[in-house]
């Protein structure tokens, strides 16, 4: 009798512990997505402490879920990440910058980032993924509406607080004059944050519309998709457009079925009509003019007067391949300095670390490099830089061979989450930024969670 009672108590304790982690994960997502509302408008004076909350929650998820890591019998990517983090932490103190707070901040992704992916993947169930998808779709509606309103309002309006070119006075310029500088980003701090979220939102909009029907009303999904397209143009962000078009191509490759062509064709036809009506409005004309000038200016100024098309292709190649290959072979800082063999130390080129070290008088956090291929090499040096980049890329590339088998098993939830998971882990997004790093770990956890129970079609 006592043994039965003890087993019952143990089960209740485990359930409470499990629920506690789930609540933390939901809270984690809340602060990843919504903390900019507090930081920009509600209590901007507490911006730095609020930014730290999501990182604190990630640490709590790690400690409450550490038993899942301990149960792993073999060496895993997550355990390797923790060990590498410990080694580069010590190297940063001995041969690097020597600041324990900066080194600790720089090592958070290795200790409480990649391992948190694994814990989220173990804890969340299908119903949690669906709930998060619903939250994402409804949030995207609010975000899209806000982007459109921000674009329409003067750049000096309070809704456009902390303008999209930080430190520059753009309030006297019109939207069209800015030719791509003005990038309204809704509830987020920067355009790069917004672009990653919008990709994530588009994934779930299409998933609920084509695959998991009846979860959200089709009318709501159509409205959200219309607002998404309009706001995507209003953001004046080439990254946003690349992400969206790339995902649409990816989605229909993996979802194409005969019985869906008619539905897809009807949707495309409807959007052509709606897009034409939008283009002849005042806001439509301004936004389309801006995005056109944005592509032209980038091609002419940044890429040696190449045509818009060739400049765009060159930009994609430079960002995704050339930059990171050069970082691996011949890493140099922004100022052109060669890096030490053991690197400058973890966290030095993050937004927080650069300010703590007061590099360049604390004006910029990206003191060594901006994109992560070079940032990792500068901070970690040659040997561990190569190892960390290999570890990070392997974490996402290992699932590519499984995508078509997931399609055969109708595991479309895994498929639609994968692009966000891939891009947030890819070296184009810097984990030196608190939002981008934590969003990557959350997306990675969702993808791992979606792989569970292969007998169930999500």
Account of the 3D structure:
- The chain is 71% helix and 0% strand.
- The protein has 19 helices and no strands.
Could you give the topology of this structure?
Blueprint: H1 2-42, H2 47-64, H3 66-70, H4 77-94, H5 100-112, H6 114-123, H7 126-152, H8 175-178, H9 191-211, H10 218-234, H11 238-255, H12 258-279, H13 282-302, H14 308-329, H15 351-356, H16 372-397, H17 403-408, H18 412-425, H19 434-450
Helix pairs in contact: 1-2, 1-19, 2-6, 4-5, 4-16, 6-19, 7-9, 7-10, 9-10, 9-11, 9-18, 11-18, 13-14, 14-16, 18-19
- Total count of helical runs of at least 4 residues: 19
Query: Which stretches of 5+ consecutive residues score pLDDT under 50?
Result: 163-180, 454-458
Average pLDDT, rounded to a whole number, is 83
Measured on Cα atoms, how large is the radius of gyration?
A: 23 Å
**Topology, number of strands:** 0
